[in-house]
Amino acid sequence: MAGPINSTPTRISLIRHGHVKNPDDIFYGRLPGFKLDSNGQQEAAQAAEALKSWKFDSVYSSPMLRARQTANEILKFHPQLKLKISSLITEVYSSFQGQPSKMLAPYLWDVYAGKDPKYEQPEDVTQRTQKFIQRIRKCHYGQHAAAVTHGDVILFAIFRAKKIPATAANKLNLNKLGILKDYPATGSITTLAYQTSDIDEIPKVSYFSFTKEF
After folding, report:
1. 2 within a domain of the structure (yes/no)
2. How many structural domains compose the chain?
3. Which of 9, 42, 150, 175 is 20 to 30 A from residue 21's alpha carbon, by CA?
4. Is residue 26 part of a domain?
């Protein structure tokens, strides 16, 4: 049964970190030390500027350096808030981590190729992302939380909201699925809005980047 409609929706804005300095072109995944490059710093500053008038009650980030750097740009306009770190919205754990990016080409850039249980599959990322979302909805009911995270976390949250299975194949068919023209852009902002406390509520989704919208 759906809960009562809240006059103020619970909103979660998922911000993808800015572009990363990666001179050796490797799939860095969860490797430490990968920071924003000059373009990424500009993207983080643009996102922060776009969000400066939004009333946030909390700001979360993935533990990854690139996400924390992006979140700290946002916090410049919200100095009353302190950054909270959540591993639930961290980068995908893939067997390709640390390998040259070109190694992914024969797999059609599927970072989930292989079934070694040591590494994540799309359903694992979806599960932890939904756990994070449910925690935010409970702890910040009727409020607005910002969370700086990674592309697949954002994409699979959109998939869940659109009732689309989270699969590597569906990542390659975004246009056909009619949800995004391209993969979530660095510095983009995806907002989920929930009107009730119903755990199964399908949120309203909005997406914005400085080059693409839907």
Report:
1. no
2. 1
3. 175
4. yes
| DSSP run (H or E) holding 192 | strand 189-194
Kindly report the pTM of this predicted structure: 0.94
Q: Tell which residue, 68, 66, 14, 78, has the closest CA to residue 40.
A: 66
Distances (CA, A) of 120 to 128, 166, 183: 11, 12, 19
Q: Summarize pLDDT for 125-179 with one digit per residue, the tens.
A: 999 999 999 999 999 999 999 999 999 999 999 999 999 999 999 999 998 888 8
CB atoms within 10 A of CB 55: 8
- Rounded to the nearest 10°, the torsion over CA 175, 48, 31, 211 is 30
Q: What tokens does 110 get?
A: 């599927």
**Percent of the chain, pLDDT > 90?**
88
In degrees, to the nearest 5, what angle opens at C-alpha 123 toward C-alphas 12 and 155? 40
pLDDT at 6 over 80: no
Q: CB–CB of 187/209 below 8 Å?
A: yes
